[in-house]
Write the structure tokens for this entry.
Amino acid sequence: MSDTCNNCGSAISGKYCSTCGQRSNVGAVTYSELGDDLYQSLFSVESPLSITLRTLFLKPEKLFKEYLGGSRKKYYRPVAFFILMTAIYLVVRSLIDFESNVESMVITGENESSASKEASVFMIRNINKFLFLLVLGMGISLKVFFFKRLRLLEYWVIAFYITGIYTLLTIFGTVITVYGSKQIQPVIIFLALVYFIFCCIRFFKGNKFLVGIKAFFAFFIAMLIYVAGSFELSYLITSYLT
């Protein structure tokens, strides 16, 4: 056992470093260590990811209050959580060959131009790249409707977590779209709306009905920014490329 921590260089006398918490008997990397780290990070009931997901679904207000209040080590960081859910979404899309089904998901009108259809296809194929617009719009809309409660940056923290859950719902919706119903997306959006209202009612104190109404319009504005912004960017990109 080393008398000095290999991570931070502090003097240690027990099984763990009192400064950074690393084990004192860390040596060469082993396969079992990598496997244990992966399990502890993703599947352990006490891992930050498990605690974050469980709390977001059951008591989102607890996570928001504790994270914004300074209790951050036990939770997955908001941006990292958002990126992880997006990465899982991309992996699932690749595994189920989502790209070959994109054309069938685009519903166009008789008078819609080919440029609009091309932009719609591009948007669906690259929708994960536009998720930042949902985070942006959600933070802004929450600030507009609940402006006295938190700072804009704090609302963006909440938006990263909620958008991560929306992405998780989208993962299930994508699988159902490929292997089942092509019209599942409205259901996913409805579930996301219900979850958003649930989070707001649990987090914001006051009249629940009034909070719910505000949450409904905040979600509507956030989705409008997300969908309209994604389409406009897709239209500009496809127009430039062609």
About this structure: The chain has a mean pLDDT of 84. The chain has two domains: 1-43, 50-241. The first helix runs from residue 31 to 42. The CA atoms of residues 78 and 161 lie 5 Å apart.
